[in-house]
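anyone seen this seq b4? input:
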Amino acid sequence: MNNAELRQHALGIFQAGIAAANPYLAVKRHFETSPMSFSNYHKIHIIAFGKAACAMANAAQEIIPAALLGDALAVTNYENVSAVKNVEVIGASHPLPDKQGFEAARRILALAENAKRDELVLVLISGGGSALIPYPVEGITLEEKIITTNLLLSCGATIHEMNCVRKHLSQIKGGGLVNFLAPATGYTLILSDVLDDDLSVIASGTTVGDNTTFADAIRVLKSKDIWHLLPESVKLHLTKGEQGVIAETPKINDPIFDDVTNYLIGSNMVSVNAMQEAAQSLKYQVILYQHPLCGEARDIAEQWVHWLKNEMLHYVEYSSVKRIAFLTGGETTVTLRGSGRGGRNQEMALAFAISAEEQKLDGKWIFLSGGSDGIDGTSPAAGGIVDAKTLLRIRTMQLSPEDLLKDNNSYCALKAAGDLLLTGATGTNVADLQILLFELDA
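predicted toks r here
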């Protein structure tokens, strides 16, 4: 099999993972199997936010009887904005919040607050929701929230760490939305972009009790060495919270959650399973690499190459298997050291190619790392797809792959090689997917 065929197989397997995370179908499937009866309510309102908001809201408005459908609002990133019948759609910025998102959050809270007893508020949540609906606590401006978010994005914080901080700076996150829902009933469907599917972390858990504290948030910021860079208002608010002057976020056993139900309807593992089926249909022996995949992107890439060369391929050599698909999914992090352009998936792909050359990884291989949302970091690419000749193609353009990696400039490197993964916005988000196809010499 030649490189072009391997590449097409990798792209096809990736697309199978994306299709499995289809938010429209996930909502439809839930209500096909759910015993819930809409007729129990006088009116049903829709609040959708996240990268999959439009597709989820579209499915919901098709299912809800027209006579019962009340106010309906969907907030998504600009790239995923699309018209939805019977639903008002607002575009906002991701990963850094903006004024449009702030206005959208205000509208969401007004909708929730106006919902009455015997009415249902259907909340549809998907990845990206934390940035899309900023609504800072009193005393912190949107600009100060943006500064804080940018610091968290740049320091290598995990999604759990980032959202721990976000929950303690927001009126809507960390279960805050539920404060505005009463006396209506809340019913939440969640598409997970978080590796352990912790509902309190996905989009910062707007309808779920929070198991973190102000002290945890301060610990994150100090451990990442960015506490001293924060706006004074942010430090003051968190310090007051740690001292008990400001009330904690509502916890899991708080009675305010008694009239709210949360359901998980999609996740990264569902997509990995779909990729496995697709690879098997192409006659690959599938091996699942560590799942969920997390850690510094370039370090994980190096570890994966080492695992392949020194453990797995020695084992496979003694079997009759010659075509192998190593699959996983997760969410790595990047600590910015340079001023380049890219994202965690592009950085991982470039680092994999460099490490494969350094460790002399033999055989014919293709490695793909892509964001399920089709957007990786600060670039228009979803990620990268590299092979054993990627570095040669970069050097032919008079560029140094190693120097570009040091500058966090993976986008430039992969663009030069023709190895960007370009899908456009997919309308979903279940974190990242990784595929390594390997063909041993006969």
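DSSP finds 16 helices and twelve strands in the chain. The domain at 22-266 is CATH 3.40.50.10180 (Rossmann fold). kinda curious what u guys think
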